[in-house]
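During the no-cost extension, the postdoctoral fellow (Dr. R.K.) reprocessed legacy sequence entries with the updated structure-token encoder. One reprocessed record is reproduced below for audit purposes.
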Amino acid sequence: MSKLNEINEQVGKYRWTICSLVFFATTVNYLDRNVLGLLKPVLSADGVFGPDKASQELNYSTVVICFQLAYAIGMVLAGRLIDWVGTKAGYAYSLIGWSVAAIGHAFGHHTWSFGFWRAALGFTESGNFPAANKTIAEWFPKKERALATGLYNSGANVGAVIAPLSVPYIAEWWGWEWAFILTGVVGLIWIYFWYTMYDSPAAKLKKGQLSQAEYDFIHSDKDEQAEEAAATNQPKASWGRLLTFRQTWAFVIGKFLTDPIWWFYMFWLPAFLNEENARKVAAFKSANPAFAGVASEVPGYISWTFAVAVVYTIATFGSIFGGWLPKHFVNGGMDPNKARKLSMFIFSLFPLTVLAASRLGEINTWLAVGTIAIACSAHQAWSANIFTTVSDMFPKRTIASVTGIGGMAGGLGGILIARAAGVLLAHYTSIGKVELGYGILFVVCGSAYIVAWVLMHLLVPKFKQIQL
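Re-encoded structure tokens follow.
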């Protein structure tokens, strides 16, 4: 980091202010989307997903799918919209939309009304990552993009940490409706800072708010400058044109296989920890029929809200480390392509630890939490790098569009895992073996990354920028 500080002293550091804005937007994004998973037990008890426990699993997965389907559709449209209207307006429209949708959940009291507001949230939240990726590409040279992406992407974990430390208590004190309202309002505050502080590097330079040295540093990638000069007054690249490149399909496949894993943890981790607690309480009471204490006194019982916060706190460091590692390799003299590939390969191995989650959970729930924390941390490190491959391979003017296409693929993969989780868990809940359903799902979660890495490598042996 001393070299980074030296660069900042020489050229300036306003670009990191821009990165912090994107970080806070991503924090709000994940704060809003995590509320549903955290309130699943409360909403189920309130009859939102129906009266029968097995059918609740299917109805809950239906609500999750509403989000995923709308998110997938919104992703590809949002990327195109942001490339068209620009980063500043596109990001603002998206955040206003998802804040309103988050508040709307307070007015849904059954599966289909919740599904409607969940779909609205998914459609509008889809603008975050295309806008964020485009912002980083506009404000950072290639050598710093993975680090900047890792930093802003860590906002996903911060939002996921804040949520379990606040949402359940808001619901307990004021009712679950207020949990949705208050988290939705937070996003609207961000709009003021975005409009006050954000503009393009050229506009900031013209206003005297950006030094010439930092502007030149941001635009120091010669290949990008040559491509942008050649692209002047040329039409936007169509989706059809972008889909003719193997590079697009490598990103699409990587997102399709790995995004759903993060969705699964987000929407089902609280439920998994609740089930582990319930299993331990039932076993203890069966062995000790005279026990008259409260559930929290049972050996092995954990505070699941605290456990969720621990998982995402650890994942925050994974996101930042994911951005740092390839930069470290490059600073050591490694070819940037090899640095990116090696980093992604390393990060694809750590999720395999989650294969032992269910078995370790039988011994001690905290052991299962530890393996899931490692897997989530590795996912965020992987995510920081797979997002950066877009700017490695595509010109700036197409980054939001390509990110949107890949995000749509990730959303479609999320639909599949949501339905699979609903069906599996409904079946195993009905026969009293829900832990087996989670075990099967953890096998999928653990192996997805190494499969994605192999397929991406076969499609694109070297990440290099295409010529449109």
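Residues 246-287 form the longest helix (42 residues). The radius of gyration is 22 Å. The remaining legacy entries will be reprocessed before the final report is submitted.
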